[in-house]
Amino acid sequence: MLGALALPALSATPASAATVPTAATATPAVSCHNLPPLPYAVHTKAVTIRSKASSKSTALGVLYKSHKFRVSKKSGNWLYITDKTTGVKGWVSGTYVYRDVRMCLD
């Protein structure tokens, strides 16, 4: 019984024999920390564009996921945007409109 358990352990290649990429064969690591930030995106179906940076302010329009927009300033968790599709300017919540996070595999 012990022989059957020891046999697979003997047939396995030792860790030192495993192929490890050397510095010459490994691809150079490009740091992504110096890349520009990712663009803002709508992370829900639609967001209300408001006249002030408050959820109780007047609604001016709706920013849909398919719309093109530009962010010009921030105030707390609110972003002042210009909806290029409709021309409406106003504030949207940063809870739903934000930049994706870039993953750096260093």
Automatic annotation (TrEMBL):
Signal sequence coordinates: 1-17
Stretches assigned to the SH3b domain: 46-97
UniProt keyword annotation of Nucleus present: no
Keyword Mitochondrion: no
Domain of life: Bacteria
Keyword field: Signal
Protein name: SH3 domain-containing protein
